[in-house]
Amino acid sequence: MTRHSTLLTIRVIVESDDIALDEIKTHFLLDENVETAIRDAVRSSMCSGSSLIVECVSTSFTCLDESPGCGRCENCKRWTRDAEGMPETIQIDICRGAVVDGKLLCDECLPTEHPYAF
Ligand SMILES: [Zn+2]
Question: Rounded to the nearest whole angstrom, what is the distance from the C-alpha of residue 97 to the centroid of ligand 1?
Answer without folding.
Answer: 8
